[in-house]
Amino acid sequence: MSQDPLTPYGNRPMVTPIVNAVNYEYRDFEVLRKITDGEIDGYTYHRDDNPTVRAVEKQIAAMEGSEDCVVCTTGMAACTMVYLSYLKTGDNVIFFHDIYGGNYKVSLILEKMGIDITWIDADESSKLEKYLKPNTTMIFLETPTNPLCKIIDIAAARRAADKVGARLVVDNTFATPYHQLPLKLGAHMVIHSATKALGGHNDLMAGAIAVSKEDYETLWFTRQAIGTTLDAYSASLLERGLKTFELRAAKMAENGQAVAEYLATNPRVSRLFYPGLKSDPGHAIASKQMHAGFGGMMSFDVGRSQDDAKRFICGLKVIYHAVSLGATESLICIPHLTTMLYLPPERRALFGVKENSVRLSVGIEPADRLVEDLKQALGKL
Ligand SMILES: Cc1ncc(COP(=O)(O)O)c(C=O)c1O
Questions:
Q1: Average pLDDT estimate for 239-250
Q2: 342 or 91, higher pLDDT
Q3: Which protein residues touch ligand 1 with a CB less than 6 Å away?
Q4: Where exactly are the structural domains of the chain?
């Protein structure tokens, strides 16, 4: 019979317990030694590790097909942990303009640390080799990109990275492991804002990095050193989200396709990016590297001005005007006024985001309700 006080009769709980302990009693010094020498997977202090967090890490690793995973406080903590762990003064990193705006803020800090940054356009991804420098040690990309949902060929990016021995890091938040497995396509590591579709309910913040065993050790060290360990409550909410992740991802993709096909027919939508549309410039590559659909993210231009886009959003009754994405509810925002606000105006325009561009994250509502909502709001313009 189990001696575990949580399971006195040996029957395991269906849900990983929320272990809300900061510290753990050592039974004896030999146990302490085994933990600190890494001989056993024991626990000492929450900043180092936590069993509820560890359970979620193993589940995300299984989803991404990685040897292990490091979960942390937010998606930006995950990105920053990767930068701090693998970049040093004098290195060059290639960033795409079309990545989550928070990375631009971190890039300002990286520059202060003497890291050289090359910004390129997602449309230039096929010419990636042209931008490589002998000191390029990392290529960081999202596909589909945020916010324009452009598609970058992950296998081609890896071939380019190999020319200079650079590490290829892919943020898989938009695609999710339901549609895309970057490690299989050649990425060295995969980042998630687990705040988004993995959690899925707008009620937790978390980040995840799916990695090899060796990179797990490196990133684990960074996390415990800087203190970006996720709390056990959020880890438990994330585990709950993961239970319905596949169902939600399938529905978001089905809705995404239906909504994009409708938007493509509306004359008030002047430009539309959704990789599931045959007319989309990224469709061919997306069809090669994504599976089971193309997700719930899209972006489009509304009318002729930002006022048109604002009036359209104010007219929506089902879709929420809010940032974030990958949630049960459909969410829409104007990136110029939200996720990209911090970028200097000339940079915001540089890669094709317009003042009237909107980013839509389709949720799991009935598709016809979403199409009706978009139709009535566009009809008022
Ligand atoms: C693609 C992508 N990566 C990373 C992040 C940052 O995640 P978090 O908000 O959890 O820090 C976001 C946030 O919107 C995102 O969209």
A1: 98
A2: 91
A3: 74-76, 100, 102, 142, 146, 171, 173-174, 193, 195, 205, 207
A4: 50-243, 245-379
